[in-house]
Amino acid sequence: MPEQQVFFSDYTLADELDLEESILGPAGLTIIRTQAATEEEVLAALEGLDPVALVTQWAPITPRVLDKCPHLKVVSRNGIGVDNIDLDYCRQRGIVVTNSPRYCTREVADHAMALLLALSRKLLFTTDRVRAGEWTSEFLTPIRRLSECTLGVIGMGGIGRAVVERARPFFGEVIGHDAYPTDVVVAGQPVTMTSLDELLSRSDFVTLHVPGTPETTHLINAARLAQMKPGAYLVNTCRGIVVDTEALVDALRSGHLRGAGLDVFEHEPLPPDHPLRFFPEVIITPHVAYYSEEATADVRRDTCVNIVNVLAGRPPVNRVV
């Protein structure tokens, strides 16, 4: 039987691929690993190869990349979002696309809550002032009592629901919005679902949990930011393209928004001189909301099980296309 190759276009989850080898090896699959960030780098790395499976983290999987792999059967995204994969072209080619949609639900929900709580109590802002030699409460004004604030959760998938469950003990009211209206029940209690316009106008804090798609690109734009309460906070742990960065900077600069907690950005890494780095009430983390030791092991395992199952004709952990 000829060698069957699994091509890892970019993979930063582990230095050693022992877990991956323990799943792919017994299935007769050979790992070919590279670190290719751009389309051209992926194409160059594929030269002379003919993989049956492709694993991608952030590298763009374009029609040119797919055409370089005539016997490709499956693209396995080691994560949740698939916005870096040309899904329509995969459908045309009959290539299965898989992902791991639940591996970091708890981690991202925890991270969003950490940002919400840190913003509400001005923890990093306060720490910076103390480190600068100050010891006063004057710069804290204003801080609201959370039990009298409303949290708006945009996106009622698994992560959004997990945030609702975590947030209810802290906030006076937690309301939700989803592009696909439905009754939502979390931990036995219904969630008050509203239009996006109503959620933005009512919420003191807004947290985003939607996929990165053409429909959600700049979902939060200048007009939507203007609908938010003066002095409100925005948290984004989903996809950078959901927020119009320039509009967000303008809203922060004008003081309409008091602050933001951001783990994702339209362009990553965030440039060293980017204005978002210099607002005292903006908390920035480097796209790490997904991370825990346990979540990393889960997604590494799912990524490989997806490949083995598809090639064996069994259902994957999750099929996107």
Commentary on this structure:
The protein has 321 residues and is an alpha/beta fold. It has eleven helices and 14 strands. The chain folds into two domains: 4-103 and 293-311, NAD(P)-binding Rossmann-like Domain (Rossmann fold), CATH 3.40.50.720; 105-284, Rossmann fold. Helices cover 32% and strands 17% of the residues. Strand 3, helix 3 (63-67) and strand 4 (74-77) form a beta-alpha-beta unit. The mean pLDDT is 96.
Query: Radius of gyration, rounded?
Result: 22 Å
* Number of distinct helices: 11
Q: Structural class of the helices, strands and pairings?
A: alpha/beta
Helix content: 25-40%
Low-pLDDT residue intervals, each spanning 5 or more residues:
none
Helices and strands, in N-to-C order?
EHEHEHEHEHHEHEEEEHEHEHEEH
Give the CA-CA distance, first to last residue.
28 Å
CATH fold naming of the largest domain: Rossmann fold
Largest sheet: 7 strands, parallel
Whole-number count of domains: 2
Question: Which architecture of the largest domain per CATH?
Answer: 3-Layer(aba) Sandwich
CATH superfamily of the largest domain: NAD(P)-binding Rossmann-like Domain
Percent range for β-strand residues: 15-25%
Write out the strand line-up for the largest beta sheet, numbering strands in chain order.
10-7-6-11-12-13-14
Task: Provide the CATH top-level class of the largest domain.
Answer: Alpha Beta
Provide mean pLDDT, rounded: 96
Globally, the shape reads elongated
Number of strands: 14
